[in-house]
Amino acid sequence: MELFGIEFGYAAFWIAAAVIFIIIEACTMGLATIWFAGGAIVAAISTLFVPSIFIQIVIFLVVSILLLYLTKPLQAKYRIGKEKTNVDAVIGETGFVTETISPESFGQVKVGGIIWTAMSTTPGETLAQGEAIKVVGVEGVKLIVSKADSPDSV
């Protein structure tokens, strides 16, 4: 397709690619394809000046990699898509034992105002009721806990 002496075949391809990358980006939780969408938009603009598809592909790749390189530190700094949610948010939190944790059975702990089933990180260890704990992991719906460094940390 030609308009005002400009071939729009490759431009249409790059615009379609950008739209597809933007749709994929909208469907994902983190930054996944936004860099490629930017590269496709620049490649579409380059069709006004560069007739070679090979050079357009190189432009697409260079711009996409450059955008990726320049924005990855920002993503890491602002933790885009890395917020702890639900059960992962309790890892590292402190609480106390509400039902004794023994080597023979699970016990219960209270962390952040919520009662959880828990087990000790140390096999054979008993954690008595009222003892301060720290959450070190999650296994299914059970918290994996260890003795807190100091009772003041609860």
Protein described:
The protein is α+β, with helices and mostly antiparallel strands and about 150 residues long. It folds into 2 domains: about 1-80, no CATH class; about 85-150, Nucleic acid-binding proteins (OB fold (Dihydrolipoamide Acetyltransferase, E2P)), CATH 2.40.50.140. Helix content is about 40%, strand content about 25%. It has 3 helices and 7 strands. It has helices spanning about 10-25, 35-45, 55-80, and strands at about 1-5, 5, 95-100, 105-110, 115-120, 130-140, 140-145. Strands 3-4-5-7-6 form a 5-stranded mixed barrel. The chain has a two-stranded antiparallel ribbon with strand order 1-2. A hairpin with a 7-residue loop joins β3 and β4 (about 105-110). α1 (about 10-25) packs antiparallel against α2 and α2 packs antiparallel against α3 (about 55-80). The protein starts with a strand and ends in a 7-residue tail after the last strand.
Helices and strands in order, then pairings?
Layout: E1 2-3, E2 6-7, H1 9-27, H2 34-46, H3 53-78, E3 94-99, E4 107-111, E5 114-120, E6 132-139, E7 142-147
Parallel strand pairs: 5-7
Antiparallel strand pairs: 1-2, 3-4, 3-6, 4-5, 6-7
List keywords for this structure.
154 residues; alpha+beta; two-stranded antiparallel sheet; 2 domains; OB fold (Dihydrolipoamide Acetyltransferase, E2P); 3 helices; five-stranded mixed barrel
Question: Describe the biggest sheet?
Answer: 5 strands, mixed, barrel
How many strand segments? 7
Radius of gyration: 27 Å
- Structural class, by secondary structure, is alpha+beta
Number of helices: 3
Number of domains: 2
Enumerate the strands of the largest sheet in spatial order, edge to edge or round the barrel.
Answer: 3-4-5-7-6
Low-confidence stretches: none
Mean pLDDT: 83
Subunit organisation of the chains: single chain
Q: What does the overall shape look like?
A: rod-shaped
Order of helices and strands: EEHHHEEEEE
Strand content: 15-25%
> Percentage of helical residues?
25-40%
